[in-house]
């Protein structure tokens, strides 16, 4: 069976010629949650940005349902394979303004959108939070509101950068429950979270700071671990 989302040989060389990561392969079927972990500075955030076509990379290619980013067009690719940052960028206005603007610019005609307020209700957020200016929200409220906006835009693949890092344990479990069943690559530093949500795991080693000659490193770069339930 062909995977819904595939990335092969994704590699990023830094300006000083060291590899940040090399030959990363990812394949996701619908409903897969691939947990991405690895030491700080290994390039996890950068890898997600490469997969979303937000950052240029040195080599490799990816496809969604067999179609490349070039074929779909970069704006469409980014709305279908969506990167969700750990902290929302400083947006003007409210979370609903962001949602309405993203909806307006969505390049796919006839796309179905969910209601971010409905998603937020499951996470102890009220409609008022979505109509409040971003800078009046707490870190945890901001993180949940931004994630609810992303989910409501219905991307096929979510690239989640530590999506619960600002949340208390109760909110973390609520968010995890909503995300189960979505197709995601999910960065976390928490082994407990990985155990709760991962259908698969990928470890990104820290190549760029390795003192060994790069040829001595395991050629496969990242290591995939399969977890069966
Ligand atoms: N285009 C680039 N040019 C030079 N350096 C870069 C580039 N992109 C990323 N880096 C560097 O690569 C390193 C990896 O950063 P990244 O944020 O991806 O790591 P991470 O694994 O997500 O770390 P953390 O777990 O701390 O969030 C950083 O030192 C960053 O500055």
From TrEMBL:
Protein keywords: ATP-binding, Nucleotide-binding
GO MF annotation, one: ATP binding
Chain ranges of the ABC transporter domain: 5-229
Pfam families: ABC_tran
SUPFAM superfamilies for the chain: P-loop containing nucleoside triphosphate hydrolases
Protein name as it appears in the record: ABC transporter domain-containing protein
Species of the source: Parasitella parasitica
